[in-house]
Structure formats: structure tokens, C-alpha cells
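Can you give me the bound-state structure? Components:
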Amino acid sequence: QLQLQESGPGLVRPSETLSLTCTVSGGSIKNVVYLWGWIRQPPGKGLEWIGSISYTGTSSYSPSLKSRVAMSVDTSYKQFSLKLNSVTATDTAIYYCARLHKTMTSALYWGQGILVSVSS
Amino acid sequence: QSVLTQPPSASATPGQTVTISCSGSSSNIGSNSVNWYQQFPGTAPKLLIYNNDQRPSGVPDRFSGSTSGTSASLAITGLQSEDEADYYCSTWDDSLNVLFGGGTKLTVL
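Here's the bound-state model for the whole set.
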């Protein structure tokens, strides 16, 4: 059974960089059929796709966040990461990592989510 | 403001059928398949329907999806109290950006 687990600081100061890592276990990260993505959910609000990355490192980002986002993948450690710079309070959210089907974009496997608060 | 429009809420009594709509455009639902997610408070979303009308293993056949033009629908028949949750539609656009609807909170009366 594939499992994903987010990790990183739960509190980030305004204007600093949010950094999260997702560790994949129970399966391979090297699969051409899937992308590895980040989705966030502000408290009490809906889901927002942040971006996706293939195991080869090809990435795509949400147009609204593109200028502040960078994703990377480390196949040796079966991890992929998210960096979001210049954060503000509006970036406070639960951040989920997920495995997305490359063509259907459906996400069967999700991490449990990690709450990241932006506050001084 | 989500590109995919869902009603913020829906309600029905146990045993009834409820339908949740998701309205998009020709550049998203009109040309790509739709997925539906179910989310309970404090938990990650769960894939309910993929590729318009396919159910992952373990999802009851009470849940069904359909599309017509630039809209999609999720139907839940034989509604049960445990179906009370938030439901999200999702697809992608011509630029391969993943899109989510704003979500619909389903209340079982």
C-alpha cells in the first residue's frame, strides 16, 4: 500500500520560505504514469492545487503561485519537496502531498496533511 | 473564486438521492475528464470518482458520476448519514493546470 507523509515546520514567519518534504513509501516514486503533487487547503476553505512534478523533475505550477513556488524530487530518498517563498498569512493552510495520475489528474493516494501557519 | 462552480451546500434525508453539480467551461470539463473527492473534517480528501464515472476499488456503487458538455454531476443514491461530508470536483485545463471546485457541503437531515 502506497503511503505519503508530509514533513516540515508548522510555523513560518511572514516573508520567509515555506519548505515541505513528502516521503513516499510502499511503492516506487519512479513511475511514468504518475506525477507527485502538492495541494493546499486554507482553514475552512476549499482545495487548491499548487503544482506537480514528475520523477524526472519536470514540474508545472499553479499560475497564481508560479512566481513563488519551486518543487524538486529526490528519487534516491523517494522524496519530493515544495518551497514557497515570500509567504504571508494567506499561505496558512493544510498542505497535502499526493500522487496524481498523469493523464486523468486523479489522486488516489494522499498524505495526511500538515498544517503550516504563517505568523510572526 | 474557483473556475469550477459547485453549490456551497446540499441536503437530503436518508434514503433519498442527492445530486451535486459542477459547472465549468469548454477549456476544462468540456475537454477533460472529471474526478470527485469526498472529504471528512480533519482528514485528507478521498478519491470517489475518476475519469468521469469510474469508481476506485472499495467505493460503493451508490456513488456515480456523469458529465454533459461543460458540466459534471455526482449522484449519491440511498443516502446514508455517513455520507455527510464535503465533496469536490476536479479536472484540468488546456494548460494542464489542475482545477478544483469550491466544494459542496452535504448535510444528511
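A couple of observations. Chain A touches chain B through 22 residues (CB under 8 Å). The first strand of chain A starts at residue 3 and ends at 7.
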